[in-house]
């Protein structure tokens, strides 16, 4: 029997009781007990490589509705099965099991009454509460539904916090705007995106079947653009008219036309309207050829040039595209938006050829402002850029496409054509605006590592030294490094690019004055790298009020030995060495730092050494002069005397020089 793991002195997690029926794609479920009231709970042990939604977890605290798997507690525990620290969520345990259990692709279809009372009624209550708390679910699909009671009368939503929004959603359960983005970059979305997912899930419950896997996801996206998502998802399925009404309301592609929570509530209350007709996109007078395909409406053209970005530069500069945009399309709003982000025809034509990728990105933004930003094959909503980088930071292709996306400075033009104005978008814009500067700085504490932590405020530090300890706060860094210092094999120095970037992004007290010296290769003083790291970590230890760290202090004693040995005066060196050892016993890095920040002792040593050098030089000159005088004697006696004098002078010179050096060093 595995030992119980206790979270926050209240929840006992049993690693020996896995509950695979409650697993999420990014978390494993285990039995858990609330020791305060002996109730059975569920612990989801999350994959540490996948960012969890800490902001949503905090927003869901005290959630009153029981039709959602609520998070009661979260934290980090030592998990013996993986030999590292893991993030854990303690949640409600649904009483009736999963709706689509195991690998089943079909179930008995829900009756209308079951759907209304058992699914939609509790669902809208949950969504309204979430909306009021300013968060989205973004994980609504049939295999994430559970029965909340043993009689299986009511359905509850599964968890929504163990991965970035939309990561595990099949395309068919995502709105077109989200489905067009890379899976990792779908972003937070809105309640309207959640309502689309509700419509697609409702269709599955009505038919009792999950949709078949899409053989060609991009073909499916173009079909949804051209024929509407409702037509593509429902197909030839026969539905009762009342269900057609709610499905058309929820699956419409225009967010302005999509049903709101209030519309669903009115429908549940008995309001019945004639089902909305699917509103298809306006066709241009003639199609436009992009990348070998022909496209008839503005959204499909935007998506096509985004996917064919490497050749689309020539296309958008051509007269054919200009004629199509200004004459064939017949939509002045689109023309105005394209002009706004590109500077109009003159702006397009004057753009340098090497800026083609950026030009294509801006044209696509102008054509379809609601779509994700597409740049060099990366399609992302801006709140999805950070999760993309966090999920695959060590992949060179991912690093390059995110760096290119930030370097394109496309967020500003995209903001300029948005019709909505949300505070969170403004905050994101402000954040993206400073990223190119951070990205283009190459020293430790900057670069793409800094971008990673700026865009993901809740992820743990990915330094290879402490990644396994799942450090999420600056205050946890020093204890983590103390654990590293206690190891038999430790890295050369307690700092790397990830750790510097993590501290720079997380602590307002760590600024350029502490970070810039880490990458200053022109400073050749002994142990200067260690001294700069010591200065930064001493600051963190002081700010965090960590206790004594003897292992880390001893580590710095060793790292600073070259600086100690740089003292020329043996007495001064012994004094410094003794002071460092005494300071290390306190376990406070600041005490060690004070010794090496004492510029006066170093100046005294340097000045004394210079004086000794000068005296040595003067003695050497005097000896040389004496030798020269002796060489001028012209008699044998003088010759003999010269030899004797040379011997004597040599002895005297050696004795004199040695005496001077000994007198200084001692």
TrEMBL record:
<protein>
    <recommendedName>
        <fullName>non-specific serine/threonine protein kinase</fullName>
        <ecNumber>2.7.11.1</ecNumber>
    </recommendedName>
</protein>
<keyword id="KW-0472">Membrane</keyword>
<feature type="transmembrane region" description="Helical">
    <location>
        <begin position="644"/>
        <end position="665"/>
    </location>
</feature>
<dbReference type="GO" id="GO:0005524">
    <property type="term" value="F:ATP binding"/>
</dbReference>
<keyword id="KW-0067">ATP-binding</keyword>
<dbReference type="GO" id="GO:0004674">
    <property type="term" value="F:protein serine/threonine kinase activity"/>
</dbReference>
<dbReference type="GO" id="GO:0007165">
    <property type="term" value="P:signal transduction"/>
</dbReference>
<keyword id="KW-0812">Transmembrane</keyword>
<keyword id="KW-1133">Transmembrane helix</keyword>
<keyword id="KW-0723">Serine/threonine-protein kinase</keyword>
<keyword id="KW-0808">Transferase</keyword>
<dbReference type="InterPro" id="IPR011009">
    <property type="entry name" value="Kinase-like_dom_sf"/>
</dbReference>
<dbReference type="InterPro" id="IPR000719">
    <property type="entry name" value="Prot_kinase_dom"/>
</dbReference>
<keyword id="KW-0418">Kinase</keyword>
<keyword id="KW-0547">Nucleotide-binding</keyword>
<feature type="domain" description="Protein kinase">
    <location>
        <begin position="1"/>
        <end position="268"/>
    </location>
</feature>
